Amino acid sequence: MDVPKGLAGVVVEETKISSTKDAKLTFAGYPVEELKDLPYPAVVYLLWHQELPTASQLKQLEHDLVASMTLPAETIRLMEYVALEPQHPMSILRTTVSLLGTTNNGGKLDEPRQILGKMLAAIAAIIRLRDSQPQLRVNPQWGVVENFMYLFMGRRPSAKQLQAFNTVMILHADHEFNASTFTSRVVASTQADFYSCLTAAVCALKGPLHGGANEQVFNMLQAIRHTGVAPQRYVDAQLAAHKKIMGFGHRVYKNGDPRAKILRGIAKEIAAETNNQVYFEIQEQLAAYMLKKLGLHPNVDYYTAVIYHCLGLDESTFTVMFAACRTAGWLAHIMEQRANGCLIRPASRYVGPTGRHVPAASTKLATERRKII
């Protein structure tokens, strides 16, 4: 029996949260194209309960999330200490999530809505720490997305920025059994606590082949812009050196990522609004050439790189922003796995040497050593 590489196509568990069947992304049965303009908390509620909220349920969830977007002073102090040594923001996030599991353990602080609020606050704090900026407080009169943007941007977003980022958060909220989500479910299957599951998910997301891809995309765009090389020549040179062109192709979406199609329009608009058209123009040339040369379409990481840059984020923080968006989905899967799943323990195929035996001389020597001890 052939072993599918990377578990491709292997069904390991059932879920009611999201699906990519027939290369169409749905959340609890709703096409993501119909959800993209809803308030972000409505989609969070959908992922957690598989039903859209009533007006009162939405209002309560929004209130609870905003109320939770405050970190204890002790947590901030420890985060500042961790951030003293230069390191990737995802490393700080990994430590922070684990830290939250020790300082916020027990009672209502373990509820998913409390955890999501704390995660958003922590990620905004990491971005502010990286930029040596003071921490800010939420405004209870604003929604969760507007507050989150204010916390990491340091200013209230424009209406267009708010709507664009609301859509970005929805499109990134969940994506079936991707690497980090599956990691969180493996840990959840042991009945570990939420913070342990989230810490594991953050570790998986950090890798350049998963969440870290958006950072690599922007590094590529900067290299093309600063060297002045034609995007087509850049691609040819990278391929000749056997290097991967980040932001293209997807294991599920062979004819184009539905999220990327929506994000392209957002990237185009926000790039024009912030005088960053040069990056979007490079992306357009790259996308056309990659499709012609290799038949590959852009994926979700491709356009978010420009969107995040236009929001004033440094590329080193792109992956922590991905984590902010994906936490709602992680929590949904952790809850589902803990409630309905069994311990995940797959088998492996051993391909190493067999029939080996320890030489008699080695066995005799080990016996002599035991006698001496």
Automatic annotation (TrEMBL):
Catalytic reaction equation(s): oxaloacetate + acetyl-CoA + H2O = citrate + CoA + H(+)
The UniProt record lists the keyword Transferase: yes
Signal peptide start-end: none
This protein's pathway: Carbohydrate metabolism; tricarboxylic acid cycle
UniProt xrefs under Pfam families: Citrate_synt
Keyword terms of this UniProt record: Transferase
Alphabetized InterPro entries for the sequence: Citrate_synth-like_lrg_a-sub, Citrate_synth-like_sm_a-sub, Citrate_synthase, Citrate_synthase_AS, Citrate_synthase_bac-typ, Citrate_synthase_sf
Keyword Cell membrane found: no
Stretches of the chain forming a coiled coil according to its record: none
Entry similarity comment: Belongs to the citrate synthase family.
Full protein name: Citrate synthase
Species whose genome carries this gene: Lacticaseibacillus baoqingensis
